[in-house]
């Protein structure tokens, strides 16, 4: 007895599962990209804040996938920033904190160390 058949039904089920998994993986990759781009925007904004003299600031930056709301605060020599975004019903939030970069302080300290070395005779 010779049976003739095809794998059409089984292949359709396998391809449906494969396509569903591929779409889910691509969606996760785009979410990771959005979080990374948002955190880079936050980091850039915090670094620029170190040069500004404003005490508190809210900004809104856009990138390819949506809008990132950035909230900045300074506390003495510390700048802290928070970023929030809702992209395609996915909410993420990031936070960063850094010291304000003051190159003039570094140069003064180097000069003070040089002067101490000159006084010591070394």
Q: Could you describe the 3D structure shown?
A:
With 122 residues, the chain is of the alpha+beta class. It has one domain. 49% of the residues lie in helices and 31% in strands. The protein has a 4-stranded antiparallel beta sheet, covered by helices on one side. β1 (56-63) and β2 form a beta hairpin. The longest helix is centred in the first third of the chain and has 42 residues, at 8-49. It is elongated and about 105 Å long. The mean pLDDT is 79.
From the structure above, extract its key features:
single chain, 122 residues, alpha+beta, four-stranded antiparallel sheet
List the helices and strands and how they pair.
Blueprint: H1 8-49, E1 56-63, E2 66-75, E3 78-87, E4 90-99, H2 103-120
Antiparallel strand pairs: 1-2, 2-3, 3-4
Short summary:
With 122 residues, this protein is of the alpha+beta class. The chain has helices at 8-49, 103-120; strands spanning 56-63, 66-75, 78-87, 90-99.
Helix proportion of residues, in percent?
Answer: 40-55%
Please trace the helix and strand order, writing H or E for each element. Answer: HEEEEH
What is the 3D shape? elongated
Describe the largest sheet.
Answer: 4 strands, antiparallel
Domains, number = 1
Q: Could you tell me how far the N terminus lies from the C terminus, measured between alpha carbons in angstroms? A: 102 Å
